[in-house]
Amino acid sequence: MIDDDDDDDEPVFDEIEPDEIDIEAIDAFHLGGDRFAVSVQLSDQYDEVARSYLLELTVGKQVKSKVLLQIEDLILSHASIAADWHVALEVGGVTHHLRNRRQKIGQGPEPFTNKLWHLDPETIFLYGEAGTTCLARDNEWIEIPPATPAFLRTMHGPSRNLIHVGGDDGALLRLSGDAWTPIPLGFNRSISALNVSASGEVFFGCEDGYCARYADEELTDIAGPGTQIFSICEFRGERYWCDDEYGLFIQKGSRLERFKPLGYIYNMHSTSDFLVTAAWRYVFIFDGERWAGVELGYDGDLFVRSVDMTRNFT
């Protein structure tokens, strides 16, 4: 007799040994007070099975966590719009919109998308390959006509009239009304991180380690570590850059100086109170003077615990 049920041969997440599960923090945001949101993905070494969470953390003398969302797949990106308003992007373009404890499901366009970015509640973007960018309208995604065939990897802007997006093949575009205007940079590097100042200066880092400032139609090199830059973020008058080896750098004029050895940092976001980083299996929180750290782990169940920053990452 032939068994047509192929599902018996498929791996099941809960049957995998905990020490074979990889865990990674994807995005982390300050929600106000001592509350933070973090998206976490867990997967086996072959990425055949996965489970992801959106957590709310309370970080004090002890760390407490609450599961806001669990997905039996990978969360690629998330955005916390407000303390009770989150959007999570699942692989495949499905988006989960959590607001006031209610959830709606959205679906992105056919081209692959892997990032979310928001300026304010009215300006939430989804973007990715083939120059694809979409604006949220409730849980629907309205596509902006693409102005480049490049894969778009990073977006930022301090106001609606200064939103920029960057990506492969030297693609850098500025949002003008409801359309993208390309900015010619004269190179084909892949832009992986972007930060725009209130005065319109564009700072960016590339996969090959190149760092630069673009202003008044001119490029100025910034001396960096030579490693891939993943995120750039302003916090309390300083501009911080992060890479996949050392950790956190601070910009001093036209050079980057080592600031904190946190290792691989994937994403950074800031409020007036905190700079928050998602760094492999850690979330690091900086108030301008002191650091706090949270480690994410899996022993058959997802757990969180405080990191003694006086003994680690110094």
Arithmetic mean pLDDT: 95
CA radius of gyration: 20 Å
β-strand number: 29
SSE sequence, one letter per element = EEEEEEEEEEEEEEEEEEEEEEEEEEEEE
Distance between the termini: 63 Å
Principal-axis shape equals globular
Structural class of the secondary elements?
mainly beta
Query: Strands across the major sheet, in which order?
Result: 25-26-27-28-29
**DSSP summary: helix tally:** 0
Percentage beta strand: over 45%
| Unreliable residue stretches | 1-6
Q: Describe the main β-sheet briefly.
A: 5 strands, antiparallel
Description:
The protein has 314 residues and is mostly beta strands. It is 0% helix and 58% strand. It has no helices and 29 strands. It has strands spanning 21-32, 35-44, 50-59, 63-71, 75-82, 85-90, 94-99, 102-107, 113-120, 123-128, 133-137, 140-144, 152-156, 164-167, 172-176, 179-182, 191-196, 202-206, 211-215, 218-222, 229-235, 238-243, 248-252, 255-260, 267-270, 275-279, 282-286, 291-298, 302-307. The chain has a five-stranded antiparallel beta sheet with strand order 25-26-27-28-29, with no helix packed on it. Strands 1-2-3-4 form a four-stranded antiparallel beta sheet, with no helix packed on it. The radius of gyration is 20 Å and the shape is globular. The protein starts with 20 loop residues before the first strand and ends in a 7-residue tail after the last strand. Residues 1-6 have low confidence and may be disordered.
